[in-house]
Amino acid sequence: MVGTVVNAGAVLAGGSLGLIVHSRLPERHRKIAFQGLGLVTLMLGLSMALRTRNPVILILSILIGALIGESFRLETRLESSVEWIRSRFARGSDSRFTEGVITAFMMFCMGSMTIIGALEDGMGKGADLLFAKSVMDGFASMAFAATFGVGVLFSVVPLLIYQGGWTLAGYLLGNLLPEAVTAELSAVGGVILIGLGLNILELKKIPLLNLLPGLLIAILVGLVWPYLGLHG
Q1: How far apart are the first and last CA of the chain?
Q2: What is the DSSP-derived secondary structure letter of residue 117?
Q3: In whole angstroms, what is the distance from residue 148 CA to residue 98 CA?
Q4: Is the CB of residue 93 less than 8 Å from the CB of residue 150?
Q5: Total domains present in the chain
Q6: Which of 22, 83, 121, 164 gets the most CB atoms within 10 Å of its CB?
């Protein structure tokens, strides 16, 4: 878990610096920096999605995961929880608190480095990948906090739960997950990142949290696919 703890610390440090800069940075500078981050997010998501080895698994994971997420209204439930946190602990914060929590969480947790790094950490292969991710997340949190405010700092709570969960999965599963399955996990995460880029650029509002079950579906379908006698 050391990698996840360091990652959370980097987000808190970067976000705190972003809050300090927030009042001193002109709006036009914050806007262009954030738009640049949105474009980079699109690029990262596309590069990850194109790594899929089986587009059918990717499509099934996204579609089935979306239906499950929508059925359980994951995004609506989390937004309600975040709003409750804001009312309790962050009264007087700007109106973008909830958006900041969710956007930062999706950015920090949907990359292949999150999944693979956490799995490797749990498997005892070291946390080097998460340490490198921590540096990038620290800088990204500065940009997010300068735009969204204090909500970015609270994103470490779901980050610890989500990334820590993958670390625990790595500890329990060991080397049971084939490389092909982790590739599909990264591809699904890439598609979600593309959606996040669209949200950041305000081109389309997509309830991305409802797509998260697709990550679990990718594991299940990826594991049973070789036994179905199909090729993709």
Answers
A1: 36
A2: H
A3: 9
A4: yes
A5: 1
A6: 121
Q: Per the structure block, which two tokens stand in for 72?
A: 């359980």
Q: Which residues, 6 or more positions from 171, have their beta carbon under 8 angstroms from its beta carbon?
A: 122, 123, 124
Rounded distance between C-alpha atoms, residue 57 and residue 217, angstroms: 9
Of the candidate ranges 22-31, 40-49, 212-221, the one whose mean pLDDT is the lowest: 22-31
Q: How far apart are CA 6 and CA 27, in angstroms?
A: 31
Calculate mean pLDDT across residues 185-206: 87
State pLDDT tens for residues 118-168. Answer: 987 888 878 888 998 898 889 889 888 888 888 899 899 989 999 999 899
Select the highest-mean-pLDDT range: 58-67, 141-150, 165-174: 58-67
Token pair of 146 as six digits: 């300068």
Query: Could you tell me how many helices (H) and strands (E) the chain has, helices first?
Result: 11, 0
Report pLDDT for 26. 76
In angstroms, the CA 34 to CA 188 distance is: 24
CA angle 98, 151, 160 (to 5 degrees): 100
| Euclidean distance between CA atoms 58 and 229, whole angstroms | 18
- Structural domain containing residue 29: 2-225
Is residue 77, in this structure, part of any structural domain at all?
yes
In a domain, 231, yes or no: no
232 occurs within a structural domain:
no
Radius of gyration of the chain measured on its C-alpha atoms = 17
The predicted model scores a pTM of: 0.79
